[in-house]
Amino acid sequence: MSHLVISKKSEVYLHVEAEVHVYYELADQFTFDVPGASFSPAYKKKFWDGKIRLFNTKRSNICWTFR
Q: For burial by CB atoms within 10 Å, which of 1, 43, 47, 57 has the most?
C-alpha cells in the first residue's frame, strides 16, 4: 500500500509526495491528446508528440488550474 501526500505549492501547482511508481501512474492519468495536434508544425517536425502532461514526474508536481 502506498502513501500519497498532496500539498499546495503555489496558486497553480500541487506538490505530490509518493513512491516513484505512483508518479508514473499519475503521469499516465493526467496526460491527454490535443485535438488537431497533427496539424501543428511542432508535431510535423517531431518536436512534440501532441500530448499535454499535467503531472511532472521530475518535479513531482501537478498543474491544477488552466490559465
A: 43
Which grid cell is 60? 513531482
What the block records as the C-alpha cell of 6 is 498532496
Q: What is the pLDDT along the chain (67 residues), one digit of tens a residue?
A: 779 999 999 989 999 999 999 999 999 999 999 999 999 999 999 999 999 999 999 999 999 875 5
SS3 content of the chain, % helix, strand, coil (to 5): 25, 30, 45
19, 5 contact by CB (below 8 A): no
Residue 37 near residue 50 (C-beta atoms within 8 A) = yes
